[in-house]
Amino acid sequence: MPRKSTSPTLTPRQMEVLRLIHHYRQRHGYSPTMQEIGDQLGLTKVTVFEHVGALERKGLVLRGAKHTARSLRVCPDFTFPEDDQPGLPLVGRIAAGAPIEAIEDRQSLDVEGLFESSGQTFALEVVGESMIDEQIRSGDYVICRKASTARNGQTVVALIDGGEATLKKFYKEGNRVRLQPANEAFKPTYPQHIDIQGIVVGVVRRM
């Protein structure tokens, strides 16, 4: 049976509700409540009921038997627009040197067969030479698994003070974090705030 494409009558707000249900269920294993959907999207509970009802009528949202709580799910035959792109999402560039402004620039890097792409993997183009001793050079693509925590010694993608993005080795030292470059020409940094976005699991290089 062919998969359904995005309906031309789907409003932007209905798409937001659909995505929220899908992503919430992926993270938690159950769907959000109407109140939680409203809180996330800045909508009243009544408005959420209207959008969910419209999505049900279009066959894009299904409910459990007898409207069981937290039983909403997206029709398995529905394909979100970005799911039609092959390969891993290429979401931008990452600094291996001085941190750079975090800029998302969605394209697609087709390395299918090399790394599992289950929605938890993404690619970043490296800018800078601070990780060359780990064989990560400027112009390479790092393949990353989404994660919010890391073990000492793992190479991470992180947002640090002011929302800057950087690629470094992670070390927790007491009450502080050290981000260590793999190039003796660069000094380690000790950010006040850090938000880990992913852990590097591979490198792709053009020859």
From TrEMBL:
Signal peptide: none annotated. CDD domains: S24_LexA-like. Residues 9-63 form the LexA repressor DNA-binding domain. One of its GO terms (molecular function) is DNA binding. InterPro entries: LexA, LexA-like, LexA/Signal_pep-like_sf, LexA_DNA-bd_dom, LexA_repressor, Peptidase_S24_LexA, Peptidase_S24_S26A/B/C, WH-like_DNA-bd_sf. Keywords: Autocatalytic cleavage, DNA damage, DNA repair, DNA replication, DNA-binding, Hydrolase, Repressor, SOS response, Transcription, Transcription regulation. It comes from marine sediment metagenome. Residues 89-201 form the Peptidase S24/S26A/S26B/S26C domain. SUPFAM superfamilies: LexA/Signal peptidase (SSF51306), Winged helix' DNA-binding domain (SSF46785). This is LexA repressor. Belongs to the peptidase S24 family. Gene3D superfamilies: Umud Fragment, subunit A, Winged helix-like DNA-binding domain superfamily/Winged helix DNA-binding domain. GO terms for biological process: DNA repair; DNA replication; negative regulation of DNA-templated transcription; proteolysis; SOS response.
